[in-house]
Write a structure and sequence with these properties.
Elements (H helix, E strand, L loop, with lengths): L1 E8 L4 E2 L2 E2 L3 E10 L5 E7 L2 H9 L1 H4 L7 H12 L17 H20 L3 H4 L7 E3 L2 E4 L19 H5 L7 H15 L4 E4 L5 H15 L5 E4 L6 H11 L5 E3 L5 H8 L6 E3 L9 H7 L4 E4 L7 H13 L3 E4 L6 H13 L30 E3 L12 H14 L6 H8 L11
Parallel strand pairs: 7-8, 8-9, 9-10, 10-11, 11-12, 12-13
Antiparallel strand pairs: 1-4, 2-3, 4-5, 6-14
Helix pairs in contact: 3-4, 7-8, 8-9
Length: 423
C-alpha cells in the first residue's frame, strides 16, 4: 500500500468559500497484490485523509481485493459513524471515511479488472453507453495560471491554455472563457460556478451565456448555497426561462424544499443531500430534483450505483459532481457514468482546468464534449512514474497540506471571511 500526496497547478478560481490556491492537492493510492498487480486510485488531497489512510494500512494488507464488504465493515468499525455535520460548510466534503473507502475501493476494482481482464465498467454491470458526456465548467476567476506562475501568465500559451489564465470577473469574461473552452473540447452543456460575486452580476453572466450560445445549449448555475431564501426566489424566478437546472441556490434541505415549491425549474444538490443518511429527510421534504453524486464523497463506485437505484425509486435524477481531479479520477468517473442506467444530464468535470496529469500518455481526450470509456482492463489507465515523482516534489515544495480557499482569498482581500449565507 503506497500513499503519495501530490500537488497540481491550479488557477485562481473563485467560489463562495474564497479562491483556489496556486496548487490543488490530490492523493494517489497504489495497492500491490502478492502477484505484483497494481491497483490505483485518486482522491482529494488532505493531510488528515492521508493520515487516516495510513492508519488503515493494517486493516487493508492481507485482504482479498474482492472482499470489499468485509473491508468496509472493518473501516466503519475503526473510524466510527460520520454525520452530515462532518461534511462541513464549505463547498467541498471534509469527511474522512468516505474518502478512505472510495480510495481503497477504486484501487481494488482496478485490481479486480486486471485479474479478470475486464474494464471496471463491467464490474459495475456493464456499459450502457460507449462515451460519457461532460459539461463545460466555468468559473469566475482572477488573472493567473497557477503553479509557480501564480497570478502571472505564460505569454507563449495558445488556445485554451491561454484562455484558462485570463481574468473572468464579469459577463464578458465568462462568455470569452466559455467560447474558448467549448471550442477546445466541444462541450454541449455549460455550468457556471457562482457564489463569488453579488447575485446580479452572476445572473447577468448567465443571461450573457444564453445570448451567446442560444437555447440549444443547456445551462446550469451553482451559487454554492450562499443565497438567502428570498434571494434564491428572486433570482431563481429570473433564471427560470434559461436554466436546465439550478444547483444549491440556498442552504439546507428545508430551504431547498421550500424554494423548490415556488420555482418551475429543477433544483440539484451536492450540498444538502450528500450521504445515504440524508435520503429519508430529502424524500420527506422534497428538497431536490437531482442529486449530484461524487464517488469520492459517497463511498465509492458501487455506492454510487446503489444511489442510482434509490434515485430511480424515489423520483430523483442522478448526475455527477466534480473536483480538481486528474486522469485516474476522470477514468473512474467515466466508467461509472457509462454504467449508470440513465444519464439525463452531462456530468460535471474540472478536468480542463488541470494542465498536468499523472497517467501515461497524458490527459484523457475530451472529444465533442465526451470521454470514451477506457477499454483496457481495470480503470484502463496507468501511472506515469516520472510525473508522479515530479508532482510529489511539487507537493513537498508548495507547503500546502489541505485546501483553504478562505486563507487564499485573504491574500487578495485581507480580513475576508467565508460566510455560509452572504446574499
Amino acid at each position: 500500500m503506497v500513499i503519495t500526496p501530490i500537488a497540481i497547478k491550479d488557477p485562481p478560481l473563485l467560489n463562495a468559500a474564497g479562491v483556489h490556491a496556486p496548487y490543488a492537492l490530490r492523493t494517489i493510492l497504489e495497492l500491490v497484490t502478492e502477484s505484483g498487480i497494481v491497483g490505483i486510485s485518486e482522491i482529494p488531497g488532505n493531510v488528515q485523509t492521508n493520515e487516516a489512510l495510513e492508519s488503515a494500512r493494517s486493516m487493508v494488507l492481507g485482504m482479498d481485493p474482492f472482499h470489499l464488504n468485509a473491508l468496509q465493515n472493518r473501516l466503519a468499525a475503526y473510524f466510527g459513524d460520520e454525520t452530515a455535520a462532518s461534511r462541513g460548510d464549505t463547498p467541498w466534503d471534509q469527511r474522512k471515511l468516505v474518502h478512505v473507502f472510495s480510495a481503497l475501493e477504486v484501487a481494488c476494482l482496478d485490481i479486480q479488472g486486471k485479474m479478470l481482464d475486464r474494464p471496471v465498467v463491467d464490474l459495475l454491470g456493464g456499459k450502457m453507453r460507449d462515451s460519457v458526456p461532460y459539461a463545460a465548467y466555468l468559473f469566475f476567476k482572477y488573472e493567473g495560471a497557477g503553479g509557480v506562475l501564480g497570478t502571472g501568465q505564460d505569454p507563449a500559451a495558445m488556445g485554451w491554455a491561454a484562455a484558462r489564465q485570463k481574468e473572468a470577473v464579469d459577463p464578458e469574461g465568462i462568455v470569452a472563457q466559455a467560447k474558448a473552452m467549448c471550442a477546445e473540447f466541444g462541450f454541449q452543456s455549460i455550468k457556471l460556478k457562482g457564489g463569488a460575486f453579488e447575485p446580479r452580476l452572476e445572473t447577468d453572466s448567465m443571461f450573457a451565456l444564453y445570448e451567446a450560445f442560444g437555447k440549444d445549449i443547456p445551462l446550469r448555475f451553482d451559487p454554492n448555497a450562499i443565497w438567502k431564501p428570498e434571494t434564491g426566489l428572486q433570482f431563481g424566478k429570473e433564471l427560470e426561462p434559461i436554466l436546465e437546472y439550478l444547483e444549491d441556490p440556498v442552504r439546507g434541505q428545508q430551504n431547498m424544499a421550500d424554494l423548490r415549491k415556488k420555482l418551475g425549474i429543477p433544483l440539484a444538490t451536492n450540498m444538502c443531500t450528500t450521504s445515504f443518511g440524508d435520503i429519508p429527510s430529502s424524500i420527506r421534504l422534497g428538497s431536490e430534483d437531482i442529486i449530484l453524486s461524487d464517488h469520492h464523497f459517497w463511498g465509492g463506485l458501487r455506492s454510487s450505483m446503489e444511489l442510482a437505484k434509490m434515485c430511480r425509486t424515489f423520483g430523483r435524477d442522478l448526475s455527477m459532481h466534480s473536483n480538481s481531479h486528474l486522469g485516474i479520477s476522470m477514468a473512474a468517473m467515466t466508467h461509472l457514468g457509462a454504467a449508470l442506467p440513465e444519464m439525463p444530464y452531462a456530468l460535471d468535470t474540472h478536468y480542463p482546468w488541470q494542465s498536468e496529469d499523472v497517467i501515461l500518455g497524458g490527459k484523457l481526450p475530451i472529444v465533442d464534449g465526451a470521454v470514451a470509456v477506457p477499454s483496457g482492463p481495470g480503470l484502463g489507465v496507468e501511472l506515469d512514474r516520472s510525473m508522479l515523482a515530479k508532482l510529489h516534489a511539487d507537493y513537498l515544495a508548495c507547503g500546502l497540506t489541505k485546501r483553504d480557499d478562505e486563507a487564499e482569498m485573504q491574500k487578495y482581500h485581507p480580513g475576508w471571511k467565508f460566510e455560509t449565507i452572504r446574499w
